[in-house]
Amino acid sequence: MTLDHPIFTRWPAQYPDRLQLFSAPTPNGVKVGIMLEETSLAYEQHRIDIMADESHAPAFLALNPNGKIPAIYDPDGPNGTSLALFESGAILLYLADKTGQFISAELSLETVLPGSFGYDEFWATLYGFPYASSPNLTVTTKAQQLLIFLLATL
Ligand SMILES: N[C@@H](CCC(=O)N[C@@H](CS)C(=O)NCC(=O)O)C(=O)O
Question: 3-class secondary structure for the chain?
């Protein structure tokens, strides 16, 4: 089985039947890894060195045009097709939906996604990442940035 996506030219899959995780040991990066462990899904991990700007390599941008980890490629996606997905909140929801774990039938996207943005701010402030030096980057601003990116890209 060979996976047909440009990401695998740079980060080949040793176990192509498994869900492929492209990430790094950051708060956003590890939460997807934790979810995969907790749900017991079989996965293969690829470390993306964001300090070496690997998240902006053409092969990675083909998976996430926004140039950020985490991102996944699921060879066993919905309706028997493969699925490439980025944004940790979206990935967590997808994995919850796929496995039927860690999600309630009453939970809505509106309650989950702002939480994802909020975590960014919290951890960035704690560890002194660039977000911390940008106090004006509020949840709303970040949501707007993402939507502007999506509108410009789609
Ligand atoms: N809202 C995104 C944020 C992802 C994000 O900020 N990823 C950071 C690491 S935690 C990253 O890839 N930084 C590298 C860069 O922006 O160049 C998510 O939750 O997935």
Answer: CCCCCCHHHHCCCCCCCCEEEEECCCHHHHHHHHHHHHHCCCEEEEECCHHHCHHHCHHHHCCCCCCCCCEEEECCCHHHCCEEEECHHHHHHHHHHHHCCCCCCCCCHHHHHHHHHHHHHHHHHHHCCHHHHCCCCCHHHHHHHHHHHHHHHC
